Amino acid sequence: MVNHKVYIIIVRNFTNRKLLMIIKVENIEKLTLFAKAMGHPTRMDILDFLLKQENCYFGDIHDVFPNAKATISQHLKELKKVGLIQGEIEGPKVKYCIDKENWELARLLFGEFFSKNANKICCD
Questions:
Q1: Is residue 19 assigned to a domain?
Q2: CA of 47: how far to CAs of 7, 71, 99, in Å?
Q3: How far apart are CA 117 and CA 115, in angstroms?
């Protein structure tokens, strides 16, 4: 029998409803996907930009960043693929925003991971 470590966390989401989150060791894969998607400075800039918006950003996000349009599109695609952002096409423009549920999951997973102590010092 395999013993799976399980974490049960109760949090309040953006609508102030209680959420019961069960975080299993298998979620290390999801954490890895989040980390990989966030592993580029432009993607971090995009996330930071969207986090600073009061509402979803509605417009041509390509105009906000100095990178080529194709480059920004690829970064948006990667962030959307792992669920950190949402994007909806409305007419000629796209509405972008942080996916609040996945953002909270990423926050909890990173928090759990980084709350572990590095007990052994192996290097000076």
A1: no
A2: 27, 15, 11
A3: 6
Q: Can you tell me whether residue 87 is helix, strand or coil?
A: strand
Neighbouring CB atoms inside 10 A of 43's CB total: 20
- Asked if residue 7 belongs to a domain, the reply is no
One DSSP character per residue, 11-23 reads: EE-TTS-EEEEEE
Question: What six digits make up the tokens of 87?
Answer: 């994007």
CA-based end-to-end distance of the chain: 40
- For the domain that residue 93 is a member of, what is the CATH number? 1.10.10.10
Q: How many domains does the chain have?
A: 1
**Three-state secondary structure call for residue 17:** coil
For residue 19, the model assigns a pLDDT of 47
Look at the block and give the residue holding tokens 């906000």.
64
Q: Which of 80, 45, 51 is closest to 64 using CA atoms?
A: 45
Q: What is the pTM of this model?
A: 0.73
Each residue's pLDDT tens digit, 13-66: 555 555 444 456 567 788 889 999 999 999 999 999 999 988 888 877 888 888
